[in-house]
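Notes from hallway chat w/ T.B., transcribed later so I don't forget. T.B. wanted the structure written out for a chain they're using in a teaching module, and asked if we could keep both sequence and structure tokens in one place. Agreed to drop them here.
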Amino acid sequence: MAWGYERLTRDYERLTRQYDRLTRDYERLTHGYERMRRRNERIARRCDQSSRHYERVT
């Protein structure tokens, strides 16, 4: 009986570590996604500004 409890405890601890790692990975991915989204928005604004400027010049 004690062996089964110890095994369950080890499995639970392993799953907890895996969950923590997944949570950190998800947070890192969402942070990277938001950073890239903001960067793409800045690039899109610059492209719009450049095209408007080009239209005014031509």
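Follow-up for T.B.: Residues 28 and 49 are 32 Å apart (CA to CA). Might be a good example for the class.
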